[in-house]
Design brief:
elongated, single chain, 25 strands, alpha+beta, eight-stranded antiparallel β-sheet
Length: 375
């Protein structure tokens, strides 16, 4: 049985650590222990851990320790309490094991929280990882932020509910590639393959994990260690660790969706198209989000029709010399892709009104595919 602990920690450090770990605590759950955060007071630091059984976050904070021990308390409640304590104060955490409570004190404030046994707290960290490599936080952010919008939210196609993270060799270049698709659009981005990633299994990282990894590790200028196996992935930077289960499924052969013979090329200022598409989409209905793009020599016309409200038309000059074509897209999907394309000029590679269109920018490592709509 763990002993009663006592430790003193800086307010700001404790607030920051609790904010990080309690992100994964489910607000409503039927298993009480999952609403708790594990507090393990060690030699000169406190380990804080939270989990939802699929995702686990651990953070460490330096402390003056009088006695070591472990317990669990309601995570969201502890975070709210500590957050409201006086700025710059020293927070004392003290466990009274006989009464199954933990006391949090700062200044004249004193809170007593009910505890649950740490032996009941799940451990997601167990198990060996087969591959490990380092990635800059800026690269991790790029890998996630540029494609996560295309992750499917359709639970029946669970294998699309994440980013497919795998290696590719094209020519003499080895790549670490991320792909996301919801069946209507596809987003793909490549990075140079980091040392240690060679031979790693292709894995599907769940949507929630992708979002948390970007928020926790995708900022600043730090090196992030990534460890993975067939069933789990772990991100580590400094005292912060995120471990997650992976989606147990097979990602479809996305290469078949990327058209090879799209020979009609449109080049247009990215910001101009984004603004114009947003303007004409104002009149679209929730059900019918289609925007029609009519291409003729040197001109692009955007049209949206709503039987209940009216229609909108906007013409733009464009670099286009192929045969005329009318093609429709979901305006929200179009906006999402245009927002992620890098550079001033957007390039569209088209084939015909019924075939997928490729979107590219100045960043040769990113590619987007959008399925057309009937208009």
């Amino acid at each position: 049985m763990s002993t009663s602990f006592k430790a003193v920690v800086e307010h700001a450090a404790l607030v920051k650590a609790l904010a990080r770990v309690t992100r994964v605590v489910e607000k409503r759950n039927t298993i009480p222990i999952l609403g708790n955060v594990l507090i393990e007071v060690q030699q000169d630091k406190i380990l804080l851990k939270a989990t939802d059984l699929d995702l686990e976050v651990i953070d460490m904070v330096s402390a003056q320790v009088a006695a070591k021990g472990t317990t669990t308390v309601p995570g969201g409640l502890l975070h709210d309490i500590v957050r409201k304590m006086p700025s710059g104060s020293q927070v004392t955490l003290e466990q009274d094991e006989a009464k199954n409570v933990m006391i949090a004190k700062a200044g004249r404030s004193r809170f007593t929280l009910q505890t649950l046994p740490p032996a009941d707290f799940p451990n997601l960290s167990a198990g060996d990882m087969t591959h490990a490599f380092m990635l800059k936080s800026t690269d991790l952010h790029r890998l996630i932020a540029r494609i996560e919008f295309a992750i499917s939210t359709e639970e029946t196609r669970y294998y699309l509910n994440g980013i497919y993270f795998h290696t590719r060799q094209e020519g003499n270049r080895n790549k670490l590639r991320g792909v996301a698709t919801d069946g209507h659009r596809l987003a793909r981005i490549d990075l140079d393959l980091p040392e240690g990633a060679t031979g790693m299994p292709g894995v599907i990282i769940p949507r929630k994990t992708v979002s948390e990894a970007d928020k926790l590790f995708g900022t600043g200028d730090q090196e992030v260690q990534i460890e993975l196996s067939q069933g789990k992935i772990r991100f580590i930077a400094g005292d912060l660790t995120l471990t997650s289960k992976l989606i147990d499924g097979t990602f479809p052969d996305y290469e078949r969706v990327i058209p090879q013979g799209n020979d009609k090329v449109l080049k247009i200022p990215r910001a101009d198209l984004s603004s114009a598409a947003d303007r004409v989409a104002t009149i679209s209905s929730e059900r019918g989000r289609a925007v029609k793009m009519s291409l003729a020599d040197g001109k692009l016309t955007l049209t949206v029709s709503n039987p209940d409200a009216g229609n909108a038309v906007e013409e733009m000059d464009a670099e286009y010399t192929a045969g005329s074509i009318d093609i429709g897209f979901n305006s929200r999907y179009l906006h999402d892709i245009v927002a992620q394309v890098q550079g001033d000029t957007l390039e569209l590679n088209l084939a015909d009104p019924g075939s997928p269109t490729i979107f590219k920018g100045s960043d040769g490592d990113a590619l987007y595919v959008l399925m057309p709509m009937r208009v």
